[in-house]
Design a protein that fits this description.
Distance between the termini: 27 Å
CATH class: Alpha Beta
CATH architecture: Alpha-Beta Barrel
Strand order of the largest sheet: 3-4-7-8-9-10-15-16
Bound molecules: flavin mononucleotide
CATH topology: TIM Barrel
C-alpha cells in the first residue's frame, strides 16, 4: 500500500502536507485553484489589512545567491474592499487559510472579525512581517502582545481555528508560541521571512531594494526554520505549519522531523513553478517508501525523541 500523505489532527485536515504560504499567488481565486489542482494540500491568502495600502515601489524583490530578499510592504486592498473576491472564494474546493494583519491589537481583531464572516477554514495572524516600518514583526517579538492579539482574535473568530505566524527574530520563539497557545491559539505557523537583510549594487553603490532592507527567504533560511520549528514543538502541544527554505521532499521531511505537521512552499515557487506542490508531495511519499514510513504521524517531531 502507498504511504498515506493525509494530514489529519485536531486542527488540520489536508490531503497532503504541502501548503501555499501567504504572499505567493494568494490574491486571485484562479491562481489559487490552479495551485490546488496541481497538488497543494491547503492555500493561504496574501495578508489582508485594515485599509487600502500601497506596497513599496519597485524594486521590491531581488534574488540573492542562496535566497531572495523582499520588501513588498504588505500591500492590501483593505478588508472592506474585497467583496468580489469573497464571492468567488465561496466556490472554492480547497482548505483556505486567511492571513490578516493590523497596525495594533484592536485592528487585528477588527480585520479578523470581518474575515471570519467570510468563513475561511483558518485565520492566520501575520504578527511577523519584517518589511513594514511601524508594525508586523515587533508584535511577534513580544510574548505579551502576541498573546493579546491571539486572545482578541479568538474572541471574534467563532469556531475558526487561529494560527499566529511567528518570526525567527524573536529572542525565544518558544516563549512566543507558548504565550499564543495560552491565549487560545489552535496552531502555529513558523517562520516568516528572516531579517531584514540588504543587498547593495556595486555599480550604483546603493541598496537595491527601494525600501533598502527586506526579508530573506528561500533555501538559505532552512536551518533557521528547522531550529525555530524545533523550539516551537518543544514549547507547545498545538500543531505547526512549518516553512522556510523548503526546496524538495527531503527538506519537507526535515521540517516534519523538527515538528511540523504541514509544510509551506514559498520561494521555491520561483524556481519550480506552481506544479511543485504535487511533485514535492510525491517526493515526500518516495522518501516514506524508501524509509518504510507508512504515515506522516510516524515522523512528525521524531527529532525530539
Ligand atoms: C514576495 C513575498 C511576499 C510575502 N508576503 C507575505 C505576506 O503577505 N504575509 C505573510 O505572512 N508572509 C509573507 N511572506 C513570507 C512567506 O509566507 C514565508 O513565510 C517566507 O517566504 C519563508 O518561506 P520560503 O523560504 O519557503 O519562501 C512573503 C514572502 C515573499 C518572498
Amino acid at each position: 500500500m502507498k504511504p498515506d500523505l493525509r494530514v489529519k489532527n485536531k486542527v488540520f485536515d489536508f490531503r497532503n502536507p504541502t501548503v501555499l504560504p501567504s504572499g505567493f499567488f494568494g490574491e486571485k481565486f484562479e491562481d489559487m485553484k490552479e495551485v490546488f489542482d496541481s497538488g497543494a494540500g491547503a492555500i493561504t491568502l496574501k495578508s489582508i489589512g485594515p485599509k487600502e495600502k500601497q506596497g513599496h515601489p519597485n524594486p521590491f524583490i531581488v534574488k540573492c545567491d542562496h535566497g531572495t530578499l523582499n520588501a513588498v510592504g504588505l500591500p492590501s486592498p483593505g478588508y472592506k474592499n474585497m467583496e468580489e473576491f469573497w464571492k468567488k472564494m465561496q466556490k472554492r474546493n480547497f482548505p483556505l487559510i486567511a492571513s490578516v494583519y493590523g497596525t495594533n491589537v484592536n485592528e487585528f481583531a477588527e480585520v479578523a472579525e470581518f474575515v471570519a464572516g467570510k468563513k475561511p477554514d483558518y485565520i492566520e495572524l501575520n504578527i511577523s512581517c519584517p518589511n513594514v516600518e511601524k508594525f508586523g514583526m515587533p508584535f511577534g517579538c513580544d510574548p505579551k502582545i502576541a498573546g493579546k492579539i491571539t486572545e482578541k482574535v479568538k474572541a471574534v473568530a467563532g469556531k475558526i481555528p487561529v494560527l499566529p505566524k511567528l518570526t525567527p527574530q524573536a529572542n525565544e520563539i518558544g516563549k512566543i508560541a507558548k504565550a499564543c497557545e495560552e491565549a487560545g491559539a489552535d496552531g502555529i505557523t513558523a517562520i516568516n521571512s528572516v531579517g531584514p537583510g540588504m543587498k547593495i549594487n556595486l555599480k550604483t553603490k546603493k541598496p537595491v531594494l527601494s525600501f533598502k532592507k527586506g526579508g530573506y527567504t528561500g533555501a538559505a533560511i532552512k536551518p533557521i526554520a528547522v531550529r525555530c520549528i524545533y523550539d516551537v514543538y518543544e514549547a507547545v502541544e498545538i500543531p505547526i505549519i512549518g516553512l522556510g527554505g523548503v526546496s524538495n521532499g527531503e527538506d519537507a521531511v526535515e521540517l516534519m522531523l523538527a515538528g511540523a505537521s504541514a509544510v509551506g512552499l514559498g520561494t521555491v515557487l520561483y524556481s519550480r513553478g506552481k506544479t511543485c506542490f504535487g511533485n514535492i508531495a510525491e517526493e515526500i511519499r518516495e522518501w516514506m517508501v524508501q524509509n518504510n514510513v507508512k504515515k506522516l504521524g510516524e515522523i512528525i517531531g521524531k527529532a525530539h525523541e
